[in-house]
Amino acid sequence: MLRAGPPSHTLLRLPLLQLLLLLLLQAVGRGLGRASPAGGPLEDVVIERYHIPRACPREVQMGDFVRYHYNGTFEDGKKFDSSYDRRTLAAIVVGVGRLITGMDRGLMGMCVNERRRLIVPPHLGYGSIGVAGLIPPDATLYFDVVLLDVWNKEDTVQVSTLLRPPHCPRMVQDSDFVRYHYNGTLLDGTAFDTSYSKGGTYDTYVGSGWLIKGMDLGLLGMCPGERRKIIIPPFLAYGEKGYGTVIPSQASLVFHVLLIDVHNPKDTVQLETLELPPGCVRRAVAGDFMRYHYNGSLMDGTLFDSSYSQNHTYNTYVGQGYIIPGMDQGLQGSCIGERRRITIPPHLAYGENGTGDKIPGSAVLIFDVHVIDFHNPADPVEIKTLSRPLETCNETAKLGDFVRYHYNCSLLDGTRGAFWQPQPAAEACGRGVRWAGCEAGPRPSSSLLPIPAARGVPGSAVLLFEVELVSREDGLPTGYLFVWHEDPPANLFEHMDLNKDGEVPAEEFSTFIKAQVSEGKGRLLPGQDPEKTIRDMFQNQDRNQDGKITADELKLKSDEDQERVHEEL
């Protein structure tokens, strides 16, 4: 129905004389039209709205640009024009004289997807002149119209927020890089494109000319996880040219957008402390070995990994390149027991390529981290005195002493469970004992305190002991099972040979040693079964293993050590 095409309801280009005559006839010929349904002549356009959409966000007004389909017929049903036959929508401005008056009036107030039947009397159509060979004089015209698009040159991008997440860490700004899903339709709902069918998000920069202008504007201020409806007029989309076969000329576009994430190439790691335990005396630095739990998600909340599901912490060195750079940075400065959220831009994570099938390219990663513990390979044992006995403390534990103690053992996050031992434990001092009682005093060591019957201790775990010293005994020099408090008898074998038969069997040897202990002349290695210790002593002296010791076999350990020195010299 355009001027250059077949007959249409638009005002044809007529010679000036014919045009003036037509206007005069329209002015005086209101009673010359076809009869109205009631039998009289029509005074105005008859409008039948036989399909009205439920939602009508906008109605056609004077000066709007519209796109619509129509069929034009006479009263007898004979068709004189159709946009369907031409497979081209009518596209024109309403109310500025480019259409016949009846069509201008009939389109006013129409909604997108509304269907109307219009009856246009002759004086609002082509009057008593008609269009030679196409529309006879004084013809009443019948149009079936469906409106598909409407916009105005004063329009801007229309943004409707459909869903906004409660937490919005940042909003889209010019020069940001965004990842989003979308469904694209024309204003009448005809789909022309979707990211969902392509197996991935649409990834691009905003405000850099990579998108149509309307989408650049429609994405601004959007939060990750937000859903928007963005309506873009043609002059901010593809304009008169359209795009291929899917977007016609002068088409308004509607995008339903879900923003997945947003970042800027200038972004650094963002830290948010969720929980900070009181009394943080040390913070992690590069070179520390850390154990932590984490949940890893994309910016839209999609979970891609979790240490909790693996039933153990993630254990690694910090600041040494064993983990992605953003996590290396994000863990430094944390405290034991702290919970923090670490947001990592893709250039400090897995970059444009992503990794696996769960982390797409250019994805921002969010880690909710719970620091369990950390230490440094150069760390000494840390000792803190919790209480001291009121009486004077004159003696402290020394290397080789035998001690008895109570203790509670826990991980640094407070986990005890299987580590707790209610009964006293016994151990030789100097093997990494961490003391809280005054008798022991500070005694750092490079190893850790052994845990009797310990189980379930994670690898690389820092252990915390609360220790109460119960008793202490002087130990023996290394390698000794028995020591004399004073000098041994001058003729030791004669004293040991109780029945004077020139040999000492095991029973006689045991009787002698026990007598020395009971008389306070010597003592056995503490913490061991005395009977076993005496048997071991006897076997050491019974050189030929014949079940008895002779004078030639019996030697003090000090004498043996001296002989060994001479042999080495």
TrEMBL record:
Catalytic activity, as annotated: [protein]-peptidylproline (omega=180) = [protein]-peptidylproline (omega=0)
Main location: endoplasmic reticulum
One Pfam family it belongs to: FKBP_C
Subcellular location: Endoplasmic reticulum
Domain EF-hand residue range list: 484-519, 529-564
InterPro entries: EF-hand-dom_pair, EF_Hand_1_Ca_BS, EF_hand_dom, FKBP-like_isomerase, PPIase_dom_sf, PPIase_FKBP_dom
Compositional bias (Basic and acidic residues): 543-569
Matching Gene3D superfamilies: 3.10.50.40, EF-hand
Domain PPIase FKBP-type stretches: 63-151, 175-263, 287-375
The entry's keywords: Calcium, Endoplasmic reticulum, Glycoprotein, Isomerase, Metal-binding, Repeat, Rotamase, Signal
Location of region: Disordered: 537-569
A Gene Ontology molecular function term of the record: calcium ion binding
EC number per UniProt: 5.2.1.8
Gene Ontology cellular-component terms listed: endoplasmic reticulum
Task of the protein: PPIases accelerate the folding of proteins during protein synthesis.
Name listed for the protein in its UniProt record: peptidylprolyl isomerase
Native species: Capra hircus
